Amino acid sequence: MCIYVLLLVLGLQPFHQILAQHNQIVSSCTSLKKAVFEEQVGYSFLFRNAPIMYETIDNCLTYTPLIVGGQPADPKEFPHMARLGHRHQKLGTIDWFCGGTLISNKLVLTAAHCLESEQGEVNVVRLGDLDLDNDHEDASPKNYAVADYFRHPQFTSSDLYNDIGIIKLAEPVQFDRYKHPACLPFENGENLDSFIAVGWGSTSLAGKSSRKLLKVKLDRIADEICRRVIERSEDYPHGFEPVSQMCVGSSKAMDTCNGDSGGPILVYHKEYPCMYHVMGITSAGISCGTPKIPSIYTRVHYYLDWIRQIMANN
Fold first, then answer.
1. Which InterPro entries match (predicted)?
2. Under CATH, what is the fold of the domain 80-180+304-313?
C-alpha cells in the first residue's frame, strides 16, 4: 500500500498537504506583521531634484512576558483579544461572559460552549479594550455586532470535547496597533514549555470578573496528570484526550478562571516579538488558582482544517 493511500486510510493528511497548510499560515502571519508594524518613511537630501529615498521602520516591539495571580496587560499588547457578550435589546445593557481571539478581519475564535450562555446567545464582540472602567486609557475599544457563529460539528453540550467555535462579525475590522489578529499555530504545542493566558475572568473562585485585561504565564503539565485529575466524568466521559486537548497550569496560584472561557493561551512568534500564536482555547477549569491543579484547553492545531474551511467560506 502506498504511503498516500495509507495516510488516507488512517484519516491523516498527506505530508505535502500539511506542508502547504503550514506555508499558508506562515505567509499569512508574515503579511499581517508587515501590514500592521512596518512603516515606509520617505526622506531626501536637501538639494534640488534630490531623489526621495525610502526606509522601512519596524515598530514590532517586545513585551515583557510574564488572571489569578496575573498582572495587567500593557496597552496594545494583545490586540487580538476579544470580549464576548449578550446585548439586551430592551435594556441596552451588555452582559460580558467569555473571551475570544481575532483570527481574521471578520472571525473570532472561541470555545463552543461560549456561543450560548445563561444571559443569552453571543450577539456582541468588543475589540481593542483594556480597562472597562477607564475611558482615558491607551486603548481603542469598539463593539461589533455578530452576524453568525459556528460550533464544531462534533461538539455537544453534554460534554466538553471539541470545545471550539468561530464567531462571524457583521463588519470587517480595520487593522491597526490596537486591533489585529493572532496567528494560527505552526505546531501542536507538545514541545512547548510555557504559555501566556489572557482574560477578564475572575481573580478568585466564585469572584467577580476583572475590570482590567490580565495576563499570566502558565506551564505545560504532563498529560498523565490531567488523566488522573479529571478521570471520567459527565463533562469528560472518555477522560482527557491529549490529541485535541492541552493540559496547562502552574505550580503557583496562577490560573484562568470564570469568565476566561473562550480566551486564548498564546506563545510568542519566534521571529516577530510583537506577534502571537493562539495555541489553545480556555475550555474548562477544575479549581481556579489551586497550585498544581491544571485546566483543560482546546488544542487549536488539531482543528486547523475546520478553521480554515470556515475562513475560506466567510
1. Peptidase_S1_PA, Peptidase_S1_PA_chymotrypsin, Peptidase_S1A, Trypsin_dom, TRYPSIN_HIS, TRYPSIN_SER
2. Thrombin, subunit H (2.40.10)
> Which residues are tagged catalytic?
113, 163, 261
The rounded distance, in Å, linking the Cα atoms of 223 and 266 is: 19
State the maximum Cα–Cα separation within the chain, in Å, rounded to a whole number.
Answer: 79
Query: Would you state the pLDDT for residue 145?
Result: 97
**From start to end of 236-304, where are the E strands?**
245-249, 264-268, 276-284, 295-299
**53 strand-pairing partners:** 43
Q: Which fold has domain 194-301?
A: Thrombin, subunit H (2.40.10)
List the domain boundaries for the chain.
80-180+304-313, 194-301
- The DSSP bridge partners found for residue 52 are 44
Give the ranges where 142-243 is alpha helix by DSSP (H).
223-230
**Sequence-ordered list of residues with C-beta below 8 angstroms from that of 233, at least 6 positions apart, any chain:** none
Cell numbers given for 14: 498527506
**pLDDT lower than 70: segments of the chain:** 1-22, 40-56, 62-69, 201-209, 232-233, 251-259, 285-292
Nearest to residue 216, comparing CAs of 191, 249, 189, 238? Answer: 249
Question: So what's the pLDDT on residue 15?
Answer: 37
Residue 4 pLDDT = 30
Look at residue 205 in the predicted model and tell me its pLDDT: 44
User: C-alpha grid cell for residue 158?
Assistant: 453534554
Secondary element (H or E) of residue 309 = helix 304-313
Give the residues across from 85 on adjacent strands: 96, 124
**Rg of the chain's alpha carbons, rounded to an integer?**
21
Which long-range contacts (C-beta less than 8 Å, at least 24 apart) are formed by 21-27?
21/304, 21/305, 21/308, 22/186, 24/308, 25/183, 25/184, 25/185, 25/186, 25/304, 26/186
